Amino acid sequence: MNPERWKQIEEIFVEVSEIEGVDRESYLDSACGADAELRAEVESLLASEDLGRIAPAITEAAEEVSGQAELPGRMLGAYRILDRIGDGGMGVVYRAERADGQFEQQVAIKVIRPGGLPPQATSRGFSPRETSLHNCSTRTSRG
Amino acid sequence: MSLDDALNELANFDERKTKVIEMRFFAGMTIEETAEALSISVATVTREQRVAEAWLNRYLTS
C-alpha cells in the first residue's frame, strides 16, 4: 500500500466512522468524489470495524505454540528458547535469548496454556509475538 | 491468513499502528502506557488502534 494513499483512506475512514446513518453516504460522496476505488477501500474498512477477528487469531497462535511439546532449542520469532524455568496453572515460562544478532539480551517468554485464561485476558495478555516481548523488555530495562 | 502475516503486512506501510496493536493486544499495555511508550497522545493511540483493528479484521477475513 502506498503510504500517501493509505493516509487518504485512513482520514476518510476516521471521519466517516464518527458519523451515524445516512449522513455517511453524503460525506463519502463529497470526500471520495469519482474515486470509486477510494470509496470501496473506506467502505470495506467500515464493514470490518466490528468483526473482532484479532482476539481469536491470538488464541489460535497461542494454541499452535503450546501444542509443540518441546520448545527448548526452537525459535520463536527472533528468540531461541533455552530452557523451561517455570510452570504454572496458566502456562509455562521459558528462558530465551535474542538470536538475530540485533543485540544480546535474555528474556522470559510465557506461553499461555489454551483455556488457561478467560477470553478477555487472552486477548490483552501474553502471546508468542516476539516483537511485543522485545518492546516490553527494552522498555522495562530503560526503567 | 495468520495474524503474524497480517501484522508484518501492516508494518510495511504503517509501522506505528503495528506497534500500537502489539502493545495493546500482546503486551497488555494500557492506552496510557502505549501513548507514553510511543510519545503520542492518548487520542492518537485510540485512533490508531481503531483503524488498525478494522484493517486487521479485514485482512484476517479475506
Word description of this protein:
The complex is a heterodimer of chains A (143) and B (62). Chain A has 143 residues and is an alpha+beta fold. In chain A, 48% of the residues lie in helices and 18% in strands. Chain A has helices at residues 3-17, 23-32, 36-48, 54-66, 119-124, 130-141; strands at residues 75-76, 79-87, 91-98, 106-112. A 4-stranded antiparallel beta sheet of chain A has the order 1-2-3-4. In chain A, strand 2 (79-87) and strand 3 (91-98) form a beta hairpin. Chain A starts with a helix and ends with a helix. Mean pLDDT of chain A is 76; it is low at 116-128 and 130-143. With 62 residues, chain B is mostly helical. Chain B has a single domain (3-61), classed as Winged helix-like DNA-binding domain superfamily/Winged helix DNA-binding domain (Arc Repressor Mutant, subunit A, Orthogonal Bundle). The relative contact order of chain B is 0.20.
SSE map:
The complex is a heterodimer of chains A (143) and B (62).
Chain A (H helix, E strand, L loop, with lengths): L2 H15 L5 H10 L3 H13 L5 H13 L8 E2 L2 E9 L3 E8 L7 E7 L6 H6 L5 H12 L2
Antiparallel strand pairs in A: 1-2, 2-3, 3-4
Helix pairs in contact in A: 1-3
Chain B lengths: L2 H11 L1 H12 L4 H8 L3 H20 L1
Helix pairs in contact in B: 1-2, 1-4, 2-4, 3-4
In short:
The complex is a heterodimer of chains A (143) and B (62). Chain A contains six helices and four strands; from the N terminus they run H-H-H-H-E-E-E-E-H-H. Chain A is of the alpha+beta class.
Q: Given the structure, what is the number of helices of chain B?
A: 4
CATH architecture of chain B: Orthogonal Bundle
- Percent helix of chain A, as a range, is 40-55%
Strand proportion of chain A: 15-25%
Order of helices and strands of chain A: HHHHEEEEHH
The proportion of strand residues of chain B reads under 5%
- What value does the average pLDDT of chain A take? 76
> In whole angstroms, how far apart are the ends of chain B?
8 Å
The shape of chain A is elongated
* Strand and helix order of chain B: HHHH
List the total number of helices of chain A.
6
The level 1 CATH classification of chain B is Mainly Alpha
Categorize the overall geometry of chain B: elongated
Question: What's the N-to-C terminus distance of chain A?
Answer: 36 Å
Helix and strand content put the structural class of chain B at mainly alpha
Largest sheet of chain A: 4 strands, antiparallel
The CATH topology of chain B corresponds to Arc Repressor Mutant, subunit A
